[in-house]
Amino acid sequence: MRLKQYLYCAFFIFPLSLSAEMKTITLSEAIEKGLSNNYYIKAEENSVNSKLHLIDSAKYGDYPSIIFDYKYTVMDKEKKLKMSMGGIPMNIVQVERNYSNLNLGINYILYAGGAIEANKNIAKSIFNSSKHSLEELKNSIKLKIQESYINILELKALREVIIAQINRLKSHSNDIEALYNE
Description:
The chain is α+β, with helices and mostly antiparallel strands. It has helices spanning about 1-20, 25-35, 40-55, 115-180; strands spanning about 65-75, 80-85, 90-95, 100-105. Helix 1 crosses helix 4 (about 115-180) and helix 3 (about 40-55) runs antiparallel to helix 4. The longest helix has about 70 residues, at about 115-180. The chain is rod-shaped and about 150 Å long. The model is unreliable at about 1-15 (pLDDT under 50).
């Protein structure tokens, strides 16, 4: 019987005395630490930042763009076109054997049928959706922290009940021993 009491005390009272020495934190401190050290939140914040750049890239149609294009072509032989003009035969080179082509210009979209505005609105919606999913993640983490905090408080209350029960059992055991010794 005494061995059971010693084991019971060793398993419950010793760890409880160690946990009493540990620093306790408030719920708001626990939430603050939980949110600041969470890698899921940091990853989601980076995702929100990337969606912000998506809005900037959707504005491409508002600005003119410069086109620069260079091509070099090598053919087996020249292509000539034979024709006669007023009875005079002529050979006109239609395509040279080696030639290059350089294009330089400015491209500006005058009318896109609302596609540019639709792309901007889609990018803004994606950004807002990403922000809301970040807030949802933060709220779910806050909920888990609060549930865990409540569970810890329940376990501390249960610990106090168990300690009181152990003290009652000890006093009852002492009473029985005193009664037995009389």
